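Support request from a user on the community tier.

User writes: "When I paste my C-alpha cells into the form, the page sometimes reloads and wipes my input. The last time it worked, I copied everything first. Here is what I submitted, just in case something in the input itself triggers the reload:"
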C-alpha cells in the first residue's frame, strides 16, 4: 500500500508547486491537498510569497482526492494533509492523526440540484455525486440527506465521480441529480439555472473545510517542523485576509476563473467563512466529532485531544509580529 501511495504522489504532484535547485538548503516536505479549491488558495499564497522558504521549508503541494490523502499521511508518503474532514474521520476510527489548524470552521459547499428538482423528496431513486468514499463530501452529503428524511444507502445512489470539476460536468450532462459543490462551481451552475437545495453550513455548523493534519509520530519527533509549517501557513492566511486585490488575482489563476465578478464573489464568500483564529474551542471540537460519529455510525467515546491539537497555532499567534507590535505599543502607552 505504501509503495502505491508513493507512486500516486509522484504522478499527481500539482504543477507550479514543485521544488527548484535553489531549495537544496531547505527542508523538503510534502503537503497533500484534497482538491483544487478556494480553501487551498491561502496555502498557494504562502508558497508564492515565500513564507514557507522563510521558515526553512521547501514545500511540495500534491493533489490526492478525499480519504486517500489521509491514507497517504498515515502511511508516511506525505508529511501534512489538508483533508480536514477525512482526518477527523480517521481519528474517530482510532488512526494516529491530529488536526492542528482549521481554515474554515464550517463546510463551504451547497447541495446543488438539477433545474427540475426543487425538493429533497424528488431525489428519491436518483444518483447523487460524490468525490470519494469516506471523504468530507461523502460524509456531509449523507448527513444532509438523513436530516431531510432520506436514507443515503437505500433512497438514493451515491455515485463516485471524482473532482469538483468532474462533478460539475456530470451535473451538466445530467448524469447525476444533485451534488455538493464549493465555489466557484456552484455559483457558475446557479447562473445556468441549477437550483440550491441546501447550504451545508446550516446543517453542520461545527465541521472544518481545509486545515493542516499531521500524524502523532510527527508531533512527537518533529514539533519544530510542524511549528514552522503552521507559522508559514498562518502568514498565508493572514495575507489572504488582508490583501484583497492580490488574493483575488491568485485565486483567479489557481481556480481558472475568467469572470472577475465571479472571482470577487468567490473570495468574499470564502472570506466570510474563515475561522477567526484558525483554531476552535472545546464545544466546536465536540460538535465536529459528534457529526463524524453520526456519519460513520460510531457510538464510542472520542475525546477531543484524540483528534485536535491547536498548540502550534496558539504558539504561532502568540509570537506573531502583529502581537509583538501591539504589545510594545501598549507598553509605550502605559509607560510614557
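"...and here is what came back when it finally went through:"
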Amino acid at each position: 500500500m505504501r509503495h502505491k501511495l508513493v507512486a500516486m504522489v509522484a504522478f499527481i504532484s500539482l504543477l507550479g508547486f514543485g521544488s527548484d535547485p535553489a531549495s537544496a538548503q531547505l527542508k523538503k516536505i510534502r503537503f497533500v491537498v484534497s482538491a483544487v479549491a478556494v480553501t487551498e488558495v491561502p496555502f498557494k499564497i504562502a508558497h508564492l510569497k515565500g513564507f514557507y522558504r522563510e521558515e526553512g521549508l521547501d514545500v511540495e503541494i500534491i493533489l490526492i482526492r478525499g480519504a486517500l490523502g489521509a491514507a497517504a499521511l498515515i502511511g508516511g508518503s506525505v508529511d501534512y494533509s489538508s483533508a480536514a474532514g477525512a482526518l477527523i474521520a480517521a481519528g474517530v476510527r482510532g488512526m494516529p492523526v491530529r488536526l492542528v489548524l482549521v481554515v474554515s470552521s464550517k463546510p463551504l459547499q451547497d447541495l446543488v440540484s438539477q433545474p427540475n428538482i426543487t425538493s429533497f423528496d424528488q431525489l428519491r431513486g436518483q444518483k447523487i455525486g460524490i468525490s470519494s468514499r469516506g471523504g468530507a463530501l461523502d460524509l456531509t452529503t449523507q448527513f444532509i440527506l438523513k436530516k431531510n428524511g432520506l436514507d443515503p444507502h437505500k433512497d438514493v445512489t451515491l455515485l463516485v465521480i471524482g473532482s469538483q470539476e468532474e462533478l460539475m460536468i456530470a451535473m451538466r450532462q445530467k448524469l447525476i441529480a444533485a451534488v455538493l459543490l464549493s465555489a466557484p462551481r456552484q455559483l457558475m451552475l446557479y447562473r445556468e439555472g441549477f437550483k440550491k437545495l441546501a447550504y451545508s453550513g446550516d446543517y453542520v455548523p461545527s465541521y472544518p473545510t481545509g486545515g493542516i493534519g499531521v500524524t502523532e509520530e510527527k508531533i512527537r519527533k518533529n514539533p519544530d517542523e510542524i511549528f514552522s509549517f503552521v507559522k508559514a501557513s498562518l502568514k498565508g492566511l493572514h495575507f489572504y485576509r488582508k490583501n484583497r486585490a492580490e488574493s483575488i488575482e491568485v485565486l483567479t489563476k489557481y481556480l481558472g476563473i475568467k469572470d472577475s465578478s465571479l472571482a470577487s464573489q468567490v473570495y468574499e464568500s470564502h472570506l466570510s467563512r474563515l475561522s477567526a483564529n484558525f483554531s476552535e474551542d472545546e464545544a466546536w471540537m465536540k460538535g465536529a466529532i459528534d457529526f463524524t460519529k453520526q456519519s460513520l455510525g460510531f457510538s464510542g467515546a472520542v475525546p477531543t485531544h484524540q483528534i485536535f491539537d491547536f498548540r502550534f497555532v496558539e504558539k504561532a499567534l502568540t509570537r506573531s509580529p502583529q502581537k509583538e507590535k501591539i504589545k510594545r505599543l501598549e507598553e509605550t502607552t502605559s509607560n510614557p
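Agent notes: The reload is a front-end session timeout and is unrelated to the input. DSSP finds 16 helices and ten strands in the chain. The chain has two domains: 2-106+207-325, 110-203. Escalated to web team.
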